[in-house]
Amino acid sequence: MLGWGKLCAISAALGCSNRDIAKTKTLIADLSITKESFAQLDPSFFDEHFSDHRGARRKRYDQPDFEKLAKRLANNKHLTRHKLWMDYVAAPAGEGESKYQYSQFCERLRTHIRTTAMTSIIEHEPGQELYVDWAGDKVSIIDKATGEVGMKASLFVAICPYSSQLFVTATANEKMDNWISCHVKALDYLGKCPGIIVFDNAPTATYRPVKNKPGRRIQQRYADFADYYDILLVPAWPGKPRDKAAVERAVQLVYSRILGYFDGITFYSLDELNEAIAQRVDDINTNMPRPDGITRRELFDADEAPMMRDLPDTPFTEVSWRNVKVDRNWHICCDYQYYSVPVQYIGKTLQARLTNSLVNIFDGDALVAEHSRMHGFKYLYCTDPAHTPDKDIAGVKPLTRDELLARASSFGPATIKVVSSILERNAKAVPRGLHTARNVLVKLGNKHNKTTLEPACQQVIDHSLVPNMQVIARIQADIARNGHTLNQTPAVQVDQGQSRIVDITAIPDAVFLRPASHYNIPKKEA
Predict the structure, then answer these.
(1) Regarding predicted confidence, which is higher, 118 or 375?
(2) What is the pLDDT of residues 170-204, one digit of tens each?
(3) What confidence category does residue 297 fall into, taking pLDDT thresholds of 50, 70 and 90?
(4) Comparing 7-21, 82-96, 167-181, 231-245, which segment has the lowest mean pLDDT?
(5) How many Å separate Cα 390 from the centre of its chain?
(6) Rg (CA), the chain
(7) pLDDT at position 185, please?
(8) Membrane-crossing residues (predicted)?
(9) Residues 272, 149 share a domain
(10) How far is 117 from 291, CA to CA, in rounded Å?
(11) Run of H or E residues at 29
(12) Which of 115, 213, 228, 408 is packed most tightly, with the most Cβ within 10 A?
């Protein structure tokens, strides 16, 4: 007796109904069919007992060679389905067979194409399109200084739908700078320029010019990139899975063939992650064959690359300028990253020229320093050994742990403990720890917040909070607003003849009640 669970399992595996399974079981029992006798059954036996009448339709209609027709369609972009149907109708049919009408012919041809590997070849011309998108899943990168997850890297995915040639890279975030930089890297990887880039309607690429209206417009910076390469930007239709099926398949491939291979591997920087991704991408493109037996790289080189345009001599580059002041540690700060300059510029204001890959620092028209731009974790230091001053230079005194602790002692023991904790948490990244601790003392301990820094640090200790700028600043704001710490109840002021006014906004589980006087509605005069 087959149980319900077994019936469901058989039904799911074979795609048939429970009624068909029960009928088969009864037939086996009635005819005493065994494994040996089953192998000897004639095909007419199944037509007699399990006929779905499709055989009659096959006999009545002349069946085209859809595989041959699909190949003809793939090899000639000017060939139409109507021409294929006309050729099919013109060919003689077998005795008693009829020809499919045009709509039936197209539907069966479409079904054949969907169930084979021909879809990408038919729907996409070689060298014409590049599909791009962000992958949904992110990759954790560990901060060596703390041993905790320091950032979640986003994955940019690009694919040529004709050959399935793939490109993947990781970025610190999904902002416009990285969006454009990833496009430039993808084109550089291909070595050629497609005619069209199809992108999803991500906020990075588009914006809504009129609030609450469905229409979206391409971001100007993204349009500038496209103009530079003479590429047409085409957004994918929302809610149309087949419109962006190529990149969705690529994302699934990234999950299974790249992220799946990283199981048990820990990454400590974006560069380390991207190096591992590049190895997996090359393996996928050069060693993993498509269903037709050809690798992605072979098909791209043979069919797509000759149809694409050459890249410009220089890649697209966005440039921005910043006025920066040289700190006492002879470094300037750009986007929370620090770059060294010669020591004689301490205290001066210089100009920094920023691209995605370089930081050039100028004093007027004179170039005083050049560094590779850093991405990823904040408060990284890029120091040229030639800029490191001699210890004997007067007026140059690097920031030290002892100096910070001495300054913290002017606030109180809680501040000393918090500053020490910050330095210990960043023991493997000493410059970052010194920078964070100094910001706590200088920015949060200035004359306006001096009286609240010590009690705020005490709250960080009492509640085992993370000692950083954001947490301490929020506690300071609460103390300044309410006049009490998290463990104190606000004072109650009573004025005779009036209702008591109690600030209960900081009391946990507080309930707001209106006083009785609120309901004393003055009577209208007659």
Answers:
(1) 375
(2) 999 898 989 999 999 999 999 999 989 988 877 77
(3) very high
(4) 7-21
(5) 45
(6) 35
(7) 95
(8) none
(9) yes
(10) 7
(11) helix 18-31
(12) 408
Strands 165-171 and 320-325: unpaired
- Same domain? For 282 and 143 the reply is yes
Better pLDDT: 217 or 430: 217
Q: What is the tally of structural domains in the chain?
A: 5
Q: Residues 47, 63: one domain?
A: no
From CA 341, how far away is CA 326, in angstroms rounded?
A: 8
What tokens does 502 get? 């109690």
Same domain? 236 vs 362: no
The two counts, helices (H) then strands (E), for the chain are 19, 15
**Domain range enclosing 174:** 129-307
Q: Which pair of tokens denotes residue 237?
A: 């239709």
How many Å apart are CA 348 and CA 526, to the nearest integer?
Answer: 78
Long-range contacts of 310-314 (CB under 8 A, 24+ apart): 310/192, 310/193, 311/187, 311/188, 311/191, 311/192, 311/193, 311/229, 312/228, 312/229
pLDDT category, 247, cuts 50, 70, 90? confident
Is the distance from CB of 247 to CB of 130 less than 8 angstroms?
no
- Same domain assignment for residues 144 and 283: yes
- pTM above threshold 0.70: no
Let me know whether 241 and 140 are in one domain. Answer: yes
In a domain, 94, yes or no: yes
Whole-number pLDDT of residue 101: 85
